Amino acid sequence: MAGETRSVKVKIDNVKMIFNTRKGQMTALNGVNLDIHENEFITVVGPSGCGKSTLLNIIAGLLQPSSGEVLCNGQKVEGVGRERGVVFQQYALFPWLTVKKNVCFALEMRGIKGAEAEKEAMRYLQMVDLEKFADHYPKELSGGMKQRVAIARAYAAEPEILLMDEPFGALDAQTRTQLQTDLLNTWEKKQKTCFFITHDVEEAIILGQRCVIMSARPGRIKKIIDIDIPYPRTQETRMSPRFNELKNEIWGEVYKEYLEVRK
Amino acid sequence: MNKKSGGLADRIPTKVWLLISLAAALIVWTILSIIPVTSRSFPNVIVTIQQIKVMYDRGVLLTDIGSSLISVGAGYVIGFVISLPVAILMAWYVPVRNILQPWISFIRNIPPLAYVPLIVLSAGIGRRPQIITITIATFLIMCITIYQGVMNIDETLIRAARVLGAKDRDIFIRVIAPASLPFIMTAIRLGASTALTTLIAAESTGAMAGLGMRIRTLNSNFDTDPMLLYIIIIGIIGLIIEKVIDFAERKLTGWQEKREA
């Protein structure tokens, strides 16, 4: 359970985001408040257009909110920072670099260079079981493997918080299940604060300690549900009655929002 | 895109196909040299090849090729050297883009032959206007190609670098430069073919020698035999340049997805 005793890693304080579009102003987020605790795994679900990605980009520092603020370790977020790593849906690997050099990029930005960086990179690639592919180019890898490299690269930057924007959204069901298991294993081994966006309710439950449900137009936090299923979670967890209860509850909320959006 | 695979056509190696294609071209050429209507434009293969010796003995063949290569090479290199920074400035700074882009689009569609006289008026005759003409033509096509490429660099890659802690300098050198390389290669390819297709216009500036200049002279004397030879030489030069660029492209941008057409 997300206890109040744990320290707050990221504080989202009354964040509002307005975009100026050709059709006028569009409020993407309004009055968003959320405390993300140290080492907590938070998942976010909601219909498309509810501002999930916008919120992630604001936490990452890639976007500045129109009003309100995000505090990370008590400091106001005013730009990107290495303590906040991002994993993108489209992998965003540098195609001109080999798998190993992609991971080295993150290390070099930390000031680790040369042979030491290469050695470190191999360690991170072992973590995602891809050390055999160190000298391959991204184009030679499957989607799932690319995303594992992207996760290894994000870890190599040693962030304190990992922001993930539908990282498994473009993958087939089997690969996605496998990567969920891998991510859980990694997270249990190396605790990190995770903020994970998904459109897949089951994914949100199997991974998260808390699930944030967002509503659209404007994007707000509608409800936060504690996922009180103990770790380690496996694929059998999906069969448990509690899992299905939560799934029905969250799915019901998301579906209502989806119908709202369609109107 | 193959109609069917696994047949005989797939088992013939590419090199052999090249020979077949060449043989077919020679057959078509021979037929054209026999048909009365087209025989005026197409002297037969043997006559054309004999022209190599004729033009060589006249002492013009190598001078013409050399002169054209100098103009094409110089114009092309200068065009590239100018287009790269201009394209990057256009992609980087909105005012530069908004002012220059309409100019480039405007001039690009005018055939160089039309504005060559203006160049001659200011630059005089000889080598200089030839190089200027080719520089302008190659600059326009390469600048617009590189600019569009840089504009289309995947924004996510830049954001990915930024969240990993990359500063502007790192992003430029380690992301934008390599990500632009495929577009730069495309520009180099288009520039080369533009340089050659501009040759006739460039050498209409009172050139003393050159493949384009010679074709015009031969044309006014209805001397078709060597003219066809010269046309073929331009084509061969184009093919050689293309092969060199292909090789460089494979070496430099082999990492690209969706290659191997």
From TrEMBL, chain A:
Q: Where is the ABC transporter domain?
A: 10-243
Q: Which UniProt keywords apply?
A: ATP-binding, Nucleotide-binding, Transport
Q: Which InterPro entries match?
A: AAA+_ATPase, ABC_transporter-like_ATP-bd, ABC_transporter-like_CS, ABC_transporter_ATP-bind, P-loop_NTPase
Q: Which Pfam families match?
A: ABC_tran
- The answer to keyword Transport applying to this record is yes
- Give the matching SUPFAM superfamilies: P-loop containing nucleoside triphosphate hydrolases
Source superkingdom: Bacteria
One GO molecular-function entry: ATP binding
Q: What name does UniProt use for this protein? A: ABC transporter ATP-binding protein
What is the originating organism of this protein? Gemmiger gallinarum
Taxonomy, top ranks, is: Bacteria, Bacillati, Bacillota, Clostridia, Eubacteriales
TrEMBL record, chain B:
Entries under CDD domains matching the protein: TM_PBP2
| UniProt xrefs under InterPro entries | MetI-like, MetI-like_sf
The entry's keywords: Cell membrane, Membrane, Transmembrane, Transmembrane helix, Transport
Q: Which organism is it from?
A: Gemmiger gallinarum
Protein name stated in the entry: ABC transporter permease
Cellular location of this protein?
A: Cell membrane
Pfam families, per the entry: BPD_transp_1
Q: Do you know which PROSITE patterns this protein is assigned to? A: ABC_TM1 (PS50928)
The topology of this chain with respect to the membrane is:
Multi-pass membrane protein
Q: Where is the ABC transmembrane type-1 domain?
A: 65-245
Q: Please list every transmembrane segment annotated in the UniProt record, as residue ranges.
A: 16-35, 69-94, 106-125, 131-150, 171-192, 227-245
**Member of which family?**
Belongs to the binding-protein-dependent transport system permease family.
